[in-house]
Design goal:
- The chain is mainly alpha-helical.
- The chain has a domain at about 30-75.
- The chain contains 4 helices and no strands.
- It is about 60% helix and about 0% strand.
Length: about 80
């Protein structure tokens, strides 16, 4: 993949990711709780959420959401 292609994909993906995270983050604290994720993705269980919560703090930050999306654990819309 060329550098241009990579940058183009990033330019398209990052705003989409940011918009999805902002719309799911109903309390505006910058992280997603299980309830916020389940409101958008009802198929996410407590166990699958725990698998996405890499630092086990009970919330998903932007890096954890990106990792979950990359691993196919959460849709990237």
């Amino acid at each position: 993949m060329t550098k241009f292609t990579t940058l183009t994909l990033m330019a398209i993906t990052i705003p989409a990711f940011a918009m999805a995270q902002v719309s799911a983050d109903t309390n505006g604290d910058g992280v997603l709780t299980l309830d916020e994720v389940q409101a958008v993705y009802p198929d996410v269980t407590a166990d699958s959420f725990a698998g996405m919560d890499l630092n086990a703090d009970g919330a998903l930050d932007g890096d954890e959401v990106a990792a979950a999306q990359e691993a196919g654990l959460m849709p990237s819309e």
